[in-house]
Structure formats: C-alpha cells, structure tokens
Design a protein that fits this description.
By secondary structure, this protein is α/β, with parallel strands linked by helices. It has two domains: 136 residues, Rossmann fold (3-Layer(aba) Sandwich), CATH 3.40.50.300; 66 residues, no CATH class. The protein has six helices and nine strands, in the order βββαββαβαααβαββ. α3 packs parallel to α5.
Length: 215
C-alpha cells in the first residue's frame, strides 16, 4: 500500500508563517479532510501538497521517496482543484474536457463518462461562457473524471453546487477511493467521506510571539 505523507512541515509565505510542525499521512483509498478557521492555512497546505509551494521545513514523500526528488512524477499523479475553475470560456463544455483528456485522460470514452458523472451531457455543445456559476464548477469537477490521477486535492469543491451535484460528487469520490485513489479536501460543507481522517490546522498555528503574522 502506497502512502502519501508529510512530516514536520512548516509553511512561510512572505514574512508570514502559515503553520508549523504539521504532519499527515494518506494511504491508498484514504481521505483527509482539512479543518480550521479562515486563514489557518488550508489552501496553502493543498498548494504545498500539489508542489505549487515549497515547505520551509520538513518534507513530502510518496511511498517513502521524497516528492522533491521527482516533482514531474508527482505532478503527473495528482489533480488540484483550487478556487478558480480553470474553464476556457471560448470552448464548449465537451471541448474543455477534450483538452483536459488529451493531456492525461481516457480520451473520448473518458469525456463521455465525465459528462454523465457530472450531469453535463445535455450541455456538451454549450459554450462555457454561457454556463451558470454552478455549471462551471461542475465542469471543473468533471476534469477529475477524465484524468487517471491517483491524488485529488480539492479546495472547497462544493462551492456553487446544488444538492444533486453534491451527491454526484460524493459518489465520484467514493468510486475513486474504492479504486485505490486518495482525496484531500478542504470544505465548509459536510461531505459523506466514510472513515476519512481529520486534520485541524488550528493546532499547528505558530505562537503569537513567533514574530510572524498568521497567513
């Protein structure tokens, strides 16, 4: 069983220390839910996990090997969904998915499955610029289902979603984990993630006299 883990992580952005001494471990099929008040570093931790930030101390490892030793391999094994949807407005719904599938996906079959999974099949030919905010979010989430990435890093994935769409997302998360994939998610919406571990970032805030402002 492979393990994605971080040990004794410190994160500093500019002159601000975000968190200190943080550790986590996510096995195959596992889920980790990030908790903490606004500014506690949930988004920063996800970006660090994705390789978009570097820890100021500590290390990330995949199956015992430092992620820093092969950052390209790490990027290939993950999907990161941040606050921005990264949807190309000039393309149709299907064309957006074709673009993502061409990079690392299952081709036409994967696109069709992703459209069905997210309830967007009836909007396949609609230009993305005509989608509502919730539909754009569903299109961003559809990227997860055309990509074979092991690790899903999700920052507030339910923003703009209705109850039916949240249910579809939960079903997709469950299927991904059953296939051995893993999920790390920061969310203020309760998601049904059986046996998920909880990481409260408020426990890793630097002391007030550390000389750095919380991020």
């Amino acid at each position: 069983m492979t393990l994605f883990e971080g040990r004794d992580l410190d994160c500093v952005r500019g002159e601000r220390q975000v968190f200190a001494g943080l550790s986590f471990a996510v096995p195959s099929g596992g889920a980790l839910v990030l908790h903490g008040p606004n500014g506690s570093g949930k988004s920063s931790l996800l970006r660090l996990m994705a390789g978009l930030l570097k820890p100021s101390r500590g290390h990330l490892a995949w199956d015992g090997r430092a992620v820093a030793d092969d950052p390209d391999a790490h990027r290939a094994r993950l999907q990161y969904l941040g606050h921005l949807d990264a949807v190309k407005s000039v393309l149709s719904v299907a064309e957006n998915l074709d673009f993502w599938a061409s990079a690392q996906g299952d081709g036409a079959a994967g696109v069709a499955a992703a459209l069905e999974r997210t309830g967007l099949a009836g909007l396949a030919e609609v230009p993305a610029r005509m989608l509502s905010a919730g539909q754009r979010r569903r299109l961003a989430l559809a990227r997860l289902f055309v990509n074979r990435a092991d690790l899903w890093l999700l920052d507030e994935p339910t923003v703009g979603l209705d109850e039916d769409s949240i249910g579809r997302l939960q079903a997709g998360l469950a299927d991904h984990r059953r296939a051995g994939g893993r999920v790390v998610v920061a969310t203020h919406t309760a998601l049904d993630l059986p046996k998920a571990e909880r990481l409260d970032l408020s426990a890793y805030q630097p002391p007030e006299d550390a000389g750095l402002e919380p991020w």
